[in-house]
Amino acid sequence: MVKFSKELEAQLIPEWKEAFVNYCLLKKQIKKIKTSRKPKPASLYPITHHPDCGLSLFQPVHNLARTFSDKLFSSSETPEILEVRRRNSSENGDNVEEIYQTELVQLFSEEDEVKVFFARLDEELNKVNQFHKSKETEFVGRGEILKKQLDILAELKQILSDRKKRNHSGSNSHRSVNSSARNSDFSAGSPGELSETQSETSRTDEMIEALERNGVNFINSATRTKTKGGKPKMSLRVDIPDAVVGADGGGARSISTAMSVLWEELVNNPRSGGGDFITRKKIQCAEKMIRKAFVELYRGLGLLKTYSSLNMIAFTKILKKFDKVSGQQASSSYLRVVKRSQFTSSDKVVRLMDEVESIFTKHFANSDRKKAMKFLRPHQQKDSHMVTFFVGLFTGCFVSLFSIYIILAHLSGIFTSGAQVSYMETVYPVFSVFALLSLHMFMYGCNLFMWKSTRINYTFIFEFSPTTALRYRDAFLMGTTFMTAVVGAMVIHLILRVAGFSASQVDTIPGILLLIFICVLICPFDAFYRPTRFCFIRILRNIVCSPFYKVLMVDFFMADQLTSQIPLLRHLESTACYFMAQSFRTHEYNTCKNGRIYRELAYLISFSPYFWRAMQCIRRWWDESNTDHLVNMGKYVSAMVAAGVRITYARESTNLWLTAVLVSSVVATLYQLYWDFVKDWGLLNPKSKNPWLRDELVLKNKNFYYFSIALNLVLRVAWIETIVRFRVNPVQSHLLDFLLASLEVIRRGHWNFYRVENEHLNNVGHFRAVKTVPLPFRDMDSDD
């Protein structure tokens, strides 16, 4: 049977862990009561025996009568063991908080320990109540704002619908007015233009009146200006009085400033000549934003409901343990107080959940409750034993095929001096691409496994859908399947090459494998993890066009992965040139290596990941006005300089370029190490209670963190090999390059865990468990 402490640990919300009742601490206090408990008399009614007298004949009858009377009147005559008093505290101004304090009515033999227990129990109860009340207020405020925005959206949709009807019915009359206007020659303007201006103004006034019916007040709406063409120029500010905006983790705050509709997207962009300043597409965009906000609100309410139920169970369990240890019945009186407290007695969460369900069903699911529940309560993926089976199967196939390849390569002498240059220059780059991709996928699977084992909420951090998020078993399956196919192709390629087939035919196998991979990646059918594939493509698009897209956590996290895959991108360059120049037919591999364009592209490809990441830092600085992003950009600029200098040194091995390599690489490495340890991992805090780490650690053994710091340091200075050059022949040179590239992928996978761990702890510190969705209405004076 699983202990409740472990069950609670497995079910609690990770980001709200500190707000839950500290069950383990209370349990330890009960153990102290048990150890300090004094022995009690064997009987409540001791019988003294006179040496000369025996027991009375009626003594058993008296004992039976006394026992019967105790059971009969126990409910009314048993005195209260403790008394829980409630007082109101208004330290935060108008916000009145209920504080509970327990006083012992009956003396215990271990009274000091019992007092400490109930004092801590009161602290936990007050903590739970205060957190529940703050979150409840926040979610209720969110609900009020969403209902207000939904009303405004409904009015806009109605205006759009009515306008289409009027335009359709009045199209003939407008044509007649326009025809008469063309025959007139008035200097003040044609009647058609005046009619269009008046229509535009009337539509604007109609929309303002409709929105004001919902309590939206427009500031300076009477002083609207007009454009040069006479059309209304709207710069409207909306004031929603007594509204509350909830920012998860920051508490609810009243809006005292004006609110503003994003009229640039909804109203303020009239199409030239048509006056269609509200389009269906923009309305649908606003509707999608509000729908997503309702889904997040419902999810937050569900989490708060789970929070209440788990804490109630925890209080019940701990009080029963106290009764068992103390031999008293104290749980009943205290549980009555717990049941009357705010986090269990308030029904606002349940009522708001029902209201959100009805609103969502009506407005976003066409009154189909089953469809609405698919959005509000998405089903979690279930682990499949078949996935585990195929992971083991493909792992075994990979090991077997790789052993076969090693044996065949040794027997055929493919790595001897006569054939090694051709084989390594033509086939090696293609297969290295797949090998590095498979290794990166395997490391990502290890990351997913560790994040799940340590209860790091990576799906929330990356904003993945819980129904389609990749699990660690799926990542392992993709990696092992991919690598098995690659090694199988290498074995077939080697067998055909040894069998005497022409090199122009055999060397098309890597190209066919690459083509199959691209087809699977862009396959539009719902197979081979389509949501994950399309998400990957969308993230790559955001990275390449980073200045033009808002940067999310998953975007710059993936861009960091690309900075560790520069050798892979260089191999892709070689592969593309090899097949596009049809070198596989002529086997002239020097065609690409000696070309000027190919040599210049090496700089561009080496710079691209760092450049994209630097552009993301600029975009984040622009959006957030945080200068740390500009400092972070400097790290990637220094890495670009170091990468370019190393490429130049590989071609011109002079003392000048050697000095440049040392200076640029040392500066870039120190920059990267500082950012890794201090910013990305949050370590090296000299004032931490964990020496040179941080106060909060997910892993219990601190030695893992010290080892990780040392490992990251060693792998960060792998560029020293470019100076020392442990190379004897082309085979060893290529194998060493592949080894260093693999070590960098392993370092990145190792870095990933601590980066996401630090982000998770930041969410825990601010109690962020629900996303804050941007809405069509936002506070113009806020910093968000």
Automatic annotation (TrEMBL):
GO terms for cellular component: endomembrane system; membrane. It comes from the Eukaryota. The gene is LOC108862156. It comes from Raphanus sativus. The chain crosses the membrane at residues 387-408, 428-450, 475-496, 508-529, 656-675, 704-724. Its main location: membrane. Keywords: Membrane, Phosphate transport, Transmembrane, Transmembrane helix, Transport. Residues 169-184 have a biased composition (Low complexity). GO terms for biological process: cellular response to phosphate starvation; phosphate ion transport. Residues 2-336 form the SPX domain. The lineage of its organism: Eukaryota, Viridiplantae, Streptophyta, Embryophyta, Tracheophyta. It is found in: Endomembrane system. This is Phosphate transporter PHO1. It is a multi-pass membrane protein.
